[in-house]
Amino acid sequence: VEAIVAQAAGLMPELDRWVLRQSLQLLHDRRAQGRPMRVFVSQSSRTLAHDTFIASMLEALDTAGADGHPLVIDIRMEDALLHTLLLRQACAELTGVGVRFCLSQFRKSEEADELLQLLPLAYLRLDMAFAVQPMPQSLRSALSSRKTSRCSARDVNMRYGSDVPFVTRSSMRT
User: Fold this and answer.
1) Which residues make beta-bridge pairs with 101?
2) Mean pLDDT of all residues in the chain?
3) Any idea of the CA torsion for 132, 44, 87, 19, to the nearest 10 degrees?
4) Is 110 helix (H, G, I), strand (E, B) or coil?
5) How large is the angle between the packed helices 110-118 and 84-94, nearest 10 degrees?
6) Which of 117-121, 141-145, 170-174 has the highest mean pLDDT?
7) What burial class does residue 94 get, using C-beta atoms within 10 Å of its C-beta: 0-12 exposed, 13-18 middle, 19+ buried?
8) Is the dihedral of CA 43, 44, 47, 53 positive or negative?
9) What is the pLDDT of residue 81?
């Protein structure tokens, strides 16, 4: 609800910066406790389009004394398509300090294929449309086989040709 109100009031960049600061503090605290973790932080299209996005990300990392490696910026595919050039610039600068990027709500399309070529993505989160797409017969057979109780993202990548890891419910628990 707060995000909807913030969006309507034009406050998404400020809300996103606050969430980022809280996430970086969590990463710092967990690292200090010897319990490091990776955090996925969503950022809105308004935040991406804001002139100070990259500078505020770098400042937040510096202020928190945080390493960028456990931070993953999660961008919706729609937003990435709207702001591809800005996102490409952000990726170039922020991956240099270890920040990783995730493209969420990923749907297979020509535009999506271009994003995969243009952006140094570390993760993909699939759109629900993947659950309703007709599966290739070989995959359907493998999933229905009693020998295959679990099909890992690695298996899917090997069989169907992707080099970007998929974030699934099971992989998010690890």
Assistant:
1) 73
2) 79
3) -110
4) helix
5) 30
6) 117-121
7) buried
8) positive
9) 92
Query: What's the Cα-to-Cα distance from 62 to each of 5, 25, 122, 165, rounded to whole Å?
Result: 29, 11, 22, 28
If one compares 115 and 160, the residue with the highest pLDDT of the two is 115
Both tokens of residue 106?
Answer: 């990923």
Contacts of residue 44, defined as CB under 8 A and 6 or more positions apart, other chains included, come to: 3, 7, 12, 13, 16, 79
Tell me the average pLDDT across 12-28: 89
Q: Six-digit token pair at 80? A: 């990435």
pTM, rounded to two decimals: 0.71
Q: The tokens 């090997």 sit on which residue?
A: 158
Instruction: Kindly state the tokens that stand for 150.
Output: 């679990």
φ, ψ for residue 123 (rounded to 5)? -145, 155
Rounded Cα gap, residues 86 and 118, in angstroms:
12
| pLDDT in the model for residue 121 | 93
* Beta bridge mates, 75: 103
- What distance lies between CA 98 and its chain's CA centroid? 14
Q: What is the pLDDT of residue 162?
A: 53
